[in-house]
């Protein structure tokens, strides 16, 4: 079952890699598949498609965007927000010292959600195909025909 699940998640991973915005390629390289080590229930198996690592720590910021472009609630929605220096300190950005820097926010560039929307059915087909090919081999190995 782990192989079948990996076959399905690989389809999702390829689709997500096709949608990820590329500037340096670090975010695309950070995408990986992992399996839950301990299951909460006997017989359960879970796979996770993850994006981000120490080098590409910003995956969630690319996927969801930041405050100004966020469509939820709050005082910073729809406009730029201010980044203020700590008390008694100043910020240094683009060669300028300042107490306040106005940030316009980051536009969301989703890559995981569109991948799931587009590749959910092909991923299930990959799981079914893997099981159809593997099950007769496993049955033959254990003497059941």
Q: Can you give a write-up of this model?
A:
The chain is of the alpha+beta class. It has a domain at 2-65 and 109-141. It is 40% helix and 15% strand. The protein contains four helices and six strands; from the N terminus they run H-H-E-E-H-E-E-E-E-H. Strands 1-2 form a two-stranded antiparallel ribbon. A two-stranded antiparallel sheet has the order 3-6. A hairpin with a 2-residue loop joins strand 4 and strand 5. Helix 1 (2-19) packs antiparallel against helix 4 (112-141). The two termini are 20 Å apart. The mean pLDDT is 85.
Helix/strand layout:
Blueprint: H1 2-19, H2 26-29, E1 32-35, E2 47-50, H3 59-64, E3 81-84, E4 91-93, E5 96-98, E6 100-103, H4 112-141
Antiparallel strand pairs: 1-2, 3-6, 4-5
Helix pairs in contact: 1-4
Task: Provide a short characterization of the protein structure.
The protein has helices spanning 2-19, 26-29, 59-64, 112-141; strands at 32-35, 47-50, 81-84, 91-93, 96-98, 100-103.
Average pLDDT rating? 85
Radius of gyration: 22 Å
Provide the structure class.
Answer: alpha+beta
Oligomer: single chain
Count of extended strands: 6
Q: What's the arrangement of strands in the largest beta sheet?
A: 1-2
The proportion of strand residues reads 15-25%
- Helical content, roughly? 40-55%
Terminal CA distance reads: 20 Å
- Low-confidence blocks of residues: none
SSE order in H/E notation? HHEEHEEEEH
Sheet of most strands: 2 strands, antiparallel
Number of discrete helical segments: 4
Gross geometry: elongated
């Amino acid at each position: 079952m782990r192989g079948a699940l990996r076959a399905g998640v690989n389809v999702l991973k390829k689709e997500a890699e096709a949608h990820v915005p590329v500037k340096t390629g670090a975010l695309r390289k950070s995408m990986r598949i992992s399996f839950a080590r301990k299951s909460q229930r006997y017989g359960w198996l879970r796979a996770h498609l993850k994006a981000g690592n120490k080098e590409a720590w910003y995956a969630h910021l690319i996927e969801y965007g930041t405050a100004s472009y966020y469509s939820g609630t709050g005082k910073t929605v729809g406009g730029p927000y201010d980044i203020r220096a700590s008390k008694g300190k100043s910020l240094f950005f683009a060669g300028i010292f300042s107490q306040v820097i106005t940030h316009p926010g980051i536009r969301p560039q989703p890559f995981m959600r569109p991948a799931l929307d587009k590749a959910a059915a092909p991923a299930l087909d990959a799981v079914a195909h893997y099981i159809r090919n593997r099950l007769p081999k496993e049955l033959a190995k254990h003497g059941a025909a």
